[in-house]
Amino acid sequence: MYGRHVAAPLDPDAGSSFQHGGMTTETSAIDRKMRHFTIHHGGVTIPVSREGQGRPLVLCPGLNSTQADLRQLTKLLRRDHEVVTFDLRGHGLASAADRYSFEAFLSDLDAVMAELGNRALPAAPVLVGYSLGADLAVHYASEHPGSVAELVLIDGANPVPEPFITEAVLPQFRAMWEDLAAQQETERGTARQVLLTAQEILDLNLEIDLIRSRILDRYRRIDRPITMIMSTSMAGDSSEGHALRFNQNWRAGVERLVHEHPHIATTWLDADHQLVFTHAPEIAQIIRR
Question: Is the pLDDT of residue 29 over 90?
């Protein structure tokens, strides 16, 4: 469900490199205009990048994704936005942490937004979140009225009527995340690394299920425009078995939300949960619109 995606290819115009947090990342000529800084809070270090010009936009990655993974979407958005990206603890160029919980990740977003406030953004930013990042965005906006101009939620923050992880599918998910953790070993020392163990990923997904069962109350506290960009087949395009149930549950959650909040604009893309990587041009166009 919240597994690893296929990494986006490196940019063909990649040229020089820079050192950040002890790691080397390839950059192109236009990328060298990026501004980088780090935030230290709660014992972790969060790397932040700013690039482009125009309306401020903060892009929050999800579980098992990094700002390097979101590079294609960032490059599309920076044409008319000042885009701020960052890594959550234990991801990418961020440092490891003693704990990986929803509240801990939310504190990372809080710290980034607070620092941007100190640096005097010209206007309240659009807050865009992918997967877990969407849930973080909803919680942040509900706790900080007036701090964002609007929300764009990409395949997350869904008040699904049923939990995804049940006893029946637990062994399947456990095996999937064990495979994922093994695959992530090959990314160690790069801007796409993820330091979480399989058990930590499982625990977080169980926590996300619980949080989404209560997220409708969070939406009731938000008075800003909300756009949702959702996948039609978040669990894949199988017409049977667990995938079918997951996809039906996903759509039912959005229908439930829009029924209560008809002002929320929703776009469905014919894709799975990796839509932020496979459909970046369409997502960028929706955000601009």
Answer: no
